[in-house]
Amino acid sequence: MTRSFADRHIGPDRAELARMLPVVGVGSLDDLATAAIPARILDDTATALAGLPAAVTEHEVLAELAALAHSDTVATSMIGLGYYDTLTPPVLVRNLLENPAWYTAYTPYQPEISQGRLEALLNFQTMVSDLTGMDVANASMLDEATAAAEAMTLLRRAGKSKSTRLLIDTDLFPQTRTVLETRAEPLGIELVAADLSSGALPDGDFFGVLVQSPGASGRVVDRREVIAAGHERGALVAVGADLLALTLITSPGEQGADVCFGTTQRFGVPLGFGGPHAGYLAVRQAFARQLPGRLVGVSVDADGDPAYRLALQTREQHIRREKATSNICTAQVLLAIVAAMYASYHGADGLRAIARRVHAHAAAVAAGLGGALVHGDFFDTVLAHVPGGAEAVVAKAKSRGINLRLVDADHVGIACDEATTTAHVTAVLESFGTAQSLDAAAPTESPRAAIETRTTEFLTHPAFTSYHTETAMLRYLRRLSDKDIALDRSMIPLGSCTMKLNSTAEMEPITWPGFARVHPYAPVEDAPGLLKIISDLETWLAEITGYDAVSLQPNAGSQGEYAGLLAIRRYHLDRGDSHRDTCLIPSSAHGTNAASAAMVGMRVEVVKCRDNGDVDLDDLRAKIADHAERLSCIMITYPSTHGVYEHEVAELCALVHEAGGQVYVDGANLNALVGLARPGHFGGDVSHLNLHKTFCIPHGGGGPGVGPVAVRSHLTRYLPGDPLESGSHAVSAAKYGSASILPITWAYIRMMGPDGLRRATLSAIASANYIARRLDEYFPVLYTGDNGMVAHECILDLREITKRTGVTVDDVAKRLADYGFHAPTMSFPVAGTLMVEPTESENLAEIDEFVEAMIAIRAEIDQVAAGVWPVTDNPLRGSPHTAASLVGEWDHPYSRETAVYPRGLAHARAKVWPSVRRIDGAYGDRNLVCSCPPPEAYAD
Length: 940
Fold this sequence. Notes:
With 940 residues, this protein is α/β, with parallel strands linked by helices.
C-alpha cells in the first residue's frame, strides 16, 4: 500500500484509531466532530477547505519548490541596511541549522532537560555583552527594528524624564524608523529626527536618544558627545550597533551608552529574504530587570552545581499581563545559537580578520569613487554622490549581477560583507565608470587603519577559544544536544504549544540558495519564487480561516497580536471613534493578549469565566454595558485557553458586534479548527495564526516563529505595509517577515491537501480525548465541553492531590524526565494543573507510554500519601535524577533503580539523562549572572 504524506504525518493509523475511538465514546472521526464541535460553527465537510489544492507527495512538493527556488535570482547583494550575505560554516549548517535535535526543541521552561540550549544561549548573551561593552544582554529579539522599538520603550520605562519625546538620528535604518513610528504613536511618544553626527542636540527635553553606528549611510561616528549631551538633558541613550564593526571600533558601552540594540544576522545567519534573524538587546546592569524577552541566567542545582535556567520570569506576560515589560513571549533561539556558534568557531581573531577584510573591500570601493565619495569614515558601507545618475549606476551593477542600494536620484549605497570579493569591487567600480586595477587596492585584510579604535579584549571565555576546528565544534554541538529533550527523542505534550512533526521534506528547502540568499530589499524581479510562495500562503491561510486577507509580515505570534489590535485601533480612529479604547479579555487568556492590548494604548478589562471554564456571558453583558461607548474589542482564544469548544462563541461575537466592538480570535489553538470551523465565519474580525504551531514551522528551542495576521475585508486596509515606507504601520523590519521559513508551511499544506488537514485536526482531538479518558480517574480533567469532550488538549487538575500529599505540579513535571518525557505545560492557564496536548503526530504507542508514565507517577504519589516515603524525600521531590547522583552513597528511602528506571528495566525507555538535578530558580534571580561563568565556577 502506498502511503500518502498525511499517513506519514499523522501518528494514529486506522487500526490505532479503532482502539482509541471507543475509549473516547465515538464510532468515527466524523462522529467525533459532531460530538465535540458546536453545530452552529461546524463547517460542511464538502465545502471546508474546498479552495485548497489537492495533496501531492513529498518528492512532488520538493520538485515544485526546487523550481520556485530556481526562478529566484541569487544576485550579489551589496544593498546593506542591516542585511548582509554571510558564509555559514558547513559544520553549523549540517549539525545545527538542519539538525532536528536543535530545531524541534521547545522553549527551555524545563531547564533540567534543556541545559544544552541554555548554555548556547548564554554564549549568545556573552558574545553580545562582550562586543557591545554592556553588562547584560537578553537571549535575542525578533529582528533589529523591533529590538529598537523595545529599546525605545525601555528608555521611557527606565528613565526619570517626564518627557514624551524620543530623539532619533536621521541616519537610522529606514525600516527601523518605520517600526519605531508604528510603536510610538499608540503610546503617545513623539519622534523627533535630527542629524546627530556632530553630537549637538536640538532644543527641548527628551526621555531618550536613539542613534545608529554605523548609520544607514555607512558613516561611523564616535558617539561620546551625543551620549554625554543626552545624559546632560536627563535622557537615556540607545545605540544600534553592528557587531562585526565592533570587533574593530570602540564599543558603545565604552562610549557611555545605556542600551544597545541590533542584529546578529551577519554572524552566519542567511539573508533569507528578511528572516528569521536574531536581533539583540543589551543594557547596563541597572536596567537588567527592565529587559524585555527571555534572559538566561546561572543558578545552582540541588547538589550545588552550576546550572542554567531562564531568569527573572516575573517580568513576563504570564505574570504581569498588561504591566509586562513587553508582549514578546518568544525569541529567535535557533538563529541566536547559529550566531553564537559562528562566533565560537571563528573566535575573536577570526572575527577581526573577517571585519578587516570587509573594511578593506569597502576602502577599495571608496578609493575608486574618488570625489564621488560622500564621507570618509566608514566600516563596510560607502555612499556615492552621482548627481542624476544613481539609477543608471544601479542598473549597470545589476547587469553585472550585483544589487546596490538606490538611496535617491543622486546617491548610491554600496555595502561590503563577508562574501564580497575583489571581483565584486571591480564590477561595482566599472558600474561607476572606474576601470582601475584593484589587485593592490583590496588586500585580504586592511592595514591597521584609523577605524581600529577598539582596545578592549572580547570573546576570551573558553566557549569562544576552544572550538576552532571542525572536530571540536562537531563534538561540542553533539555534547550540548545530548543534554536536551527535543521531538527527535520524545513526545513533547505541551498544552497551548502544539509540538507536532516538522517533516524533513518541509525543512529541506529552507537552506537552498534561492530562498536563503536573497536580500529582503532586492528588486522584486529577483524573487518570483518566494513571492509565489507568499501569495499562495496568503490565499490558502485565508481559505483555512475564513478571513479575506492575510499579512505574513509579523515574525512572531506576539507581533501578529499587535498587528491585529493595531488594525482594530486604526479602524475605530478612521470612523471617528477615538474614544473606543477598552479591550475585554477573559480571565483565562494568555498573558500576551493583555500585554499586546496595552501596547496599542488600550485599557484592559477582565471578563470572568464560569466554573466550567467558559466565558461568563452574564459578566460579558455587564462589562459591555459598563463600557459600551468605549468598547473597542474583545480578545478570545478558540477553542478556549481551557481546551474546550465553547458552545456560545457565536453569541459572544454577536454581543460584541452589537455594541460596536470588534472580535479578535487568538489563533493559538487553530490546530483544533482546521477543516472543521473558521473564525472568520463564526464571528471573528481578526486573528493571528501561529505557523510554528498549527502549520509545522519548528519551535527551534524557543524561536523562530511566524504570526501572520488575518482580517475580514473591512480591516484589510489596516494590515502592516512596506517597512521602507514611512507611515506604513509596519511591525517588522522586512515586508514579509521571516520569509525564508515560509516554504515549510507551504509544503505542509501542499502535501496534506484538504482531506489530510481535516484528518490531522480530528486525530489531534481524538488523541487529546483519549488521554483525558484514560487519565481522568488518576488526575481529574478540569474542564470539558458538551458531551464531556475536550478539544485538542486537556487540563489535569493536581490541586487536591497537592493539598493532600504535598506533591506539586513541579514534582510531577520533573519526575517525567526520569521516565524519559518532557513535561506538559505547568500551571497555565490554572495554577496547580498540567495541560496536555498530544497533537496528531504521536502514534498510539507513544501516547500509551506517556499515559502509563502518568499512571505510575500517580502510584508514586499514593506512596507518599500513605507515608511510605516522606514528602521531603521521595522519587518525585528528588527528581530529576542524574547519572552522577547514582554514584557514591545513597541515603534515600527509595532505590537507585526506582530513581532512574521507575517502571523497571523491563519497561525502560531510551531517554535523555538530565545533566543537572533540580534547579534553584530563586537563587538565580537573587544572584543574577547572565553571561558565561568562568571555568573555575565548575571546578569549585
